[in-house]
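Budget justification note: compute hours in this period were largely spent on complex prediction jobs such as the one shown. Inputs:
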Amino acid sequence: MKIKKGIPLIDQHDKNGFYGGKFGGNYIAETLKKPIDDLTKLFEKCRKDKNFIKERDNLYENYVGKPTRLIKLQNLTDHLGGAQIYAKMVSDANGGAHKIYNAITHAMLCKKAKKKYMCTDTGAGYNGKMFSMVAKKFGLGCKVFMGTRDIERQKPNCDAIRKNGAEIIPVTSGSKTLVDAVSECIRYWVSNCDKAHMGIGSLVGPNIFVKICGFSTAQISRELKIQLEEEFGEIPNKLKLINCVGGGSSAYGFWSEFFDYDKKHIELIGVEAGGPKNSKLHAAPLSKNSKIAILHGAAAYCVQDSDGQINETESCSSGLDYPSCSPIHCFLKDVGRARYTFATDEEAFAAYKLVTELEEISPSLEPAHAFAEAIKIAPKLDESNIVVVDSCGDSIKDMDIIKKRLGSYSR
Amino acid sequence: MKSEINLAFEKCKKENRPALLTYTVAGDNTKKKSLEILKSISEYADILELGFAHNAPTADGPQIQNSSYRALKNGIKLKDVFQIVKNYKKSKNAKPCILMGYYQMVYRYGEKKFVKKCKQSGVNGLIIVDLPFPDNKEFSKLCKKNSITFVQLLSPTTSKERMRKIIASSHDMVYYISMLSITGGKLKVSPKKILENYSKIKRISKSKNAVIGFGITNKTIAAFKKADGLVVGSALCKGISDSIKKRQNPVIKLNRMVKELKSKII
Ligand SMILES: Cc1ncc(COP(=O)(O)O)c(C=O)c1O
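Corresponding output:
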């Protein structure tokens, strides 16, 4: 098992859609075989089409806002007294998170497929919000599947989804979170695949959805590479890129230009949700060495019991509260190119608190997990080390949770 | 030697009627009750499908989901499912039994171990909802080697060319999904249209036992009499839910329901 240089990682699967021979695939109902084949052909055609790429780049520039900033967190750096800490402010993107990139590609594909509406899943509400935004922009209908537990805890994003004219379909089965939302969205697509376009909100699902998502979020690291060269004159030779990992779409996007570098040169660190310190539940299949499961059409490390039932997860951050992860991250773990760890709820809140006290930024609880890791490692490193954290979401959606936990919330 | 599944279809053909296939979930609403249900409905059904529950089903509607969650809440494990089949197959009027579920459960158990356990328990066939052709080639071979029918699925989105390939690699029976739907959906296509699609399968292979499932209830079943076999699942799962709600015995209720279904196709 090895990464091939010079080829996008999303394309390094075999003919059955497996990375490293065992992660991913297409475990789907027969009914979805054709819609998925059709989507695959359409996507492969579009990504080679200059006009398609031009239209997309134009949207990134004028609609998403490009590039999102790379800023130095001088106060945090001084406070921790070690590595120099930077943040890539992906939350600058229109809508407030990286999910906009994937949503745009899906809306463009939906149009090309001549379908009139899209369905998607959401946990933190960001993916749903972005789909609702682009649906409105493209004149498409939009159905967002969301667990009722997440509807309760991510109200600001739900309000935004509805304001954009999209429909939220509450999902009450199972743990009432992202895992159930994705299942319900796939079920909906099975019944409506002739009319609806489906977009999955992260780097998960049957192979084509992994590819579309990675193709989209890769914009983040294209920008980052240029910004690093501008800031340092070259790619720094002790660089660490830290990203939270739920499904793994933002981590893939943040890292995709850098897989070919040696890990001693550029270290890639993924941070999963460790859940509450005193709870057995977590959403960290990679870092807690879960076994492989088949979930949502793909084989990937996933928290499960010995009989194969998917375990409940727990995390303060809806966006990371997912039992499985992307086949691509499983591959990156097994080949040793990326290192995966976790932060507990407590560590994420503490990181949020420290970062917002010292800096003029306000990351949501997902990237707060990544900041927690930066805070852990920075003091042990000297200033020749550059640590960049992907601040991939804005805290406004977590206002209520933060207020309850820390006593106050201000922006 | 002919398989039990084949013999069941032959018997029905002789009687000039489609085979009646039922679907219930192992452990719904308890391990004991689900076994009693199987024994009881064997009076009228020709082949019994038995679901092994998974908690992240991507192709099941609310009725079967309810049954699955009920079974899981009652602590059903794969080993119990096999035990239920084993006990059922010892009963005097036992019919062929097909296990149905998601690949994750098989994968975690281990393909070889799973198939071996099926054989030991007397399972006659397997339907794996999310292991489509051609990805199922190896697994299907493994089943065949162990005298277990791997049931290939076909749907309205399956192209003719693909149908041909799937049927060519199929065993004693194929399953036609009547419409674009998860289980338990309302019949949104006319029986006429469904039978038209179904006849495509029969034209490719006249002798292949082909059953129709999804959306079949006692209201619609009579319209499909021409098929080789008909599967009723969600309606029965709903029957169990209803009887629990009314504090009635689901065994009696299901016996009555299957009897009525049978009466409409003879
Ligand atoms: C702000 C934010 N960060 C991270 C995630 C996790 O998803 P992924 O790992 O795909 O980036 C989400 C998901 O909803 C999110 O909203």
